[in-house]
Amino acid sequence: MKNVQQQQTLSEMVEFAGTGLHSGNKVTAKFLPAPANTGIVFRRVDLEGKPEIEARVDNVSDTTRSTTLSKGNIKLHTVEHILSTFSGMGVDNAIVELDANEPPIGDGSARDFCEAVRKAGLSLQAENREPLKITEPMGVQVGDSILSVFPYDGFKISCTSSDAKGQFTQYYSTEIDPETWEIEISKARTFCFYEEIEFLIKNGLIKGGSLENAVIIRDDVVLTNEPLRYPDEFVRHKILDIIGDLYLIGRPVQAHIIAIRPSHKINCELARQFAAIANKPKVPTQTFAPPAEESKSKAMVEPEKELPPPIPQDATSLDVNMVMKILPHRYPFLMVDRVTKIDGNKIQAIKNVSINEPFFEGHFPGHPIMPGVLQLEAIAQVAGILTLNNPENWGKIAYFLAADTVKWRKPVLPGDTLVIDVEVMKSRGKIGKAKGVCSVNGNTVSEAVVTFMMAKA
Fold first, then answer.
1. Would you say residue 37 lies in a domain?
2. How confident is the model at residue 168 (pLDDT cuts 50, 70, 90)?
3. Structural domain tally of the chain?
């Protein structure tokens, strides 16, 4: 998608065959060129009349372990890897013909689809590409899955994934363009945990699954027929799925998406929100505007008012009421109860972890543990307190952009007092960077370097 302003389609038809992951059916797939503004359309050539299903989020009927499209009585399972390929490689318009109810799974990644697109080649079309440009922060939460979206001049995804026990926690962040998608994302394979297999089989899924097309995790052991392709292959596959599911809006996206334990369900919910924005009628341009001189004089008589400082500049500790004068966060997402020390570019705060925290209801029943990603959020909020109280940042909001060198060392339990120590390493212009360490009883439980951006509220 980088530097390409026009729509693209395939230069020629390409065909390949394989087995469906969940159905186990043998299937032949064809990728065909399509006219501009067609989008991605799936065609079931095994059914009478060769019915078609447009790759639109309105046609999503199920998100259990994969994304299923339906139209009338026609269904098509596991479309996300093909859609991720088209999105990542910049294919705006294509017809996908299938002679079964699911595309071939290949090796569990998007590598085969990528090779097919490369074989077919790409052709520019006369019509311009119109990305959906996100201009305001937004987000969605489903259970313990969270997707946050921020304005960004490009397409970037930062993702944290883990299993239900907090194991195999991985983080990865990357710009998405054809080169990075193919090198960093396309070869990441689908995976599942051993204890899920019985449930999947009983529900008629993974009939075509094997170590040839999936990675199995059993306790601390990774079962695979070849070495992992990336050290963090699991989270990269999560990013692959996000890209595919979001392409159900029918156009590229310009935004930075921060994902915490994503799923097809929450991916498609965000796609619905994106589609609502994309389909919102544009406000007509104002025909008449006041003369330039009139606007200038009005600005002179009505100067912009200065915001008062949130708290005294010489404060060395803050109670929760003073914290809320600086941070926009509120229950249940305020992760700071009190600031105990402010010393130059260093700050220390605490979070009293109560059994009444809402996240303990599902994380986990009978074994409550504070999610590591919320400790990361606490670090970002404490860094925001120190930065947002600077005069040049009064009235602004700090948007969490990225996290590096993230480590979770010990579980945080109900009754613990989480101490958050943060040092702001850089705060120049709109961008800030800070190093944070969370501890309980003097023992480090997590640490990270976070990057954030200042913007008007």
1. yes
2. confident
3. 3
